[in-house]
């Protein structure tokens, strides 16, 4: 029987490196890996069903896709994750911000619905008492879902401006920018000991701040559940060949139960900040996956 040849939007991370390099054998599946210049620009066509059989998708984007009944099935596999505290930055030509006094301030972000921004909102809410509706979010991009409108607390920046420019030009007070996405020495993390603070937050909450998860098309999960299960197997086998990060915390452990506390946290934050209309249950969002696996038995 010929192998299923699947179009795949799966970037190279430590956990997917072996898969992408052809080191994980399969008798039934082979991948055509896409190589987009800008990854997040591929999420819209993915959601609309125009491209890809299997892909990575930011977890908050998936929650919105679930809300709007997009035909995607979430696999219990984390593509990438990182501690997020280092992503909160400020302009060091000005005094460092007091995170207990952010009410009325402006926060620069790529998108209000960006998963990293959702984790930052959770941190600011839990540890600094900030309601996301008490600040103004200056965005450079809109949401991936056309059905969603940014809430009134959002304002779109001048076309063409980057988040780093907003911060350096004084258009925002602080910003959300991942390390590696800026080079100006004036941009500094708000948390000077970000990893220490993040590890403490992880110990207190039990949450692993994941970013992207794996999805397959709903049609593939319904019509070829064995292929969906094989994709999951190949991903988990690839992940076993990657080392733990230097801080020793496994942020990408796969499986529904290991992911439950983290998904409950991001679902709750997405609901509280108005990104989704109601708090889904973890079992609800994985129902199509469970049903596909059940049909194999």
Helix/strand layout:
Blueprint: E1 4-9, H1 17-20, E2 29-33, H2 43-47, E3 54-58, H3 59-67, E4 72-81, E5 88-91, E6 106-109, H4 115-128, E7 136-139, E8 154-156, H5 163-168, E9 174-176, E10 187-189, H6 194-205, E11 210-217, H7 218-223, H8 225-240, H9 256-272, H10 282-285, H11 287-296
Parallel strand pairs: 1-2, 1-3, 6-7, 6-9, 7-8
Antiparallel strand pairs: 3-11, 4-11, 5-9, 5-10
Question: What would you say this structure looks like, in words?
Answer:
The chain is of the alpha/beta class and 297 residues long. The protein folds into 2 domains: 4-81 and 209-296, Periplasmic binding protein-like II (D-Maltodextrin-Binding Protein, domain 2), CATH 3.40.190; 85-205, Periplasmic binding protein-like II (D-Maltodextrin-Binding Protein, domain 2). It has 11 helices and 11 strands. The strands form 2 sheets. It has a 6-stranded mixed β-sheet with strand order 8-7-6-9-5-10. The chain has a 5-stranded mixed β-sheet with strand order 2-1-3-11-4, sandwiched between helices. β6 (106-109), α4 and β7 (136-139) form a beta-alpha-beta unit. It is globular, with a radius of gyration of 19 Å. The two termini are 21 Å apart.
């Amino acid at each position: 029987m010929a192998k299923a040849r699947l179009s795949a939007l799966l970037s190279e991370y430590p956990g997917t490196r072996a898969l992408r390099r052809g080191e994980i054998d399969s008798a039934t599946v082979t991948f055509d890996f896409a190589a987009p210049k800008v990854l997040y620009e591929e999420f819209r066509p993915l959601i609309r069903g125009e491209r890809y059989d299997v892909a990575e998708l930011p977890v908050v984007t998936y929650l919105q896709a679930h809300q709007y009944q997009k035909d995607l099935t979430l696999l219990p596999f984390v593509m990438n994750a990182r501690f997020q505290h280092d992503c909160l930055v400020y302009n060091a030509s000005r005094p460092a911000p007091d995170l207990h006094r952010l009410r009325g301030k402006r926060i620069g972000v790529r998108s209000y619905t960006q998963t990293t921004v959702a984790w930052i909102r959770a941190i600011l809410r839990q540890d600094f008492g900030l309601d996301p509706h008490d600040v103004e979010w200056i965005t450079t991009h809109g949401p991936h879902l056309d059905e969603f409108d940014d809430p009134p607390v959002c304002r779109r920046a001048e076309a063409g401006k980057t988040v780093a420019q907003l911060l350096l030009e004084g258009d925002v007070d602080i910003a959300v920018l991942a390390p590696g996405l800026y080079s100006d020495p004036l941009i500094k993390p708000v948390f000077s000991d970000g990893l220490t603070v993040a590890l403490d937050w992880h110990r207190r909450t039990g949450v692993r701040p994941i970013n992207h998860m794996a999805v397959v098309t709903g049609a593939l999960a319904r019509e070829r559940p064995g292929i969906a299960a094989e994709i999951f197997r190949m991903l988990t086998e690839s992940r076993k060949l990657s080392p733990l990060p230097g801080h020793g915390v496994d942020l990408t452990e796969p499986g529904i139960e290991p992911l439950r506390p983290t998904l409950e946290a991001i679902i709750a934050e997405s609901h509280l900040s108005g990104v989704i209309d109601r708090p889904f249950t973890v079992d609800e969002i994985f129902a199509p996956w469970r049903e596909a696996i059940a049909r194999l038995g």
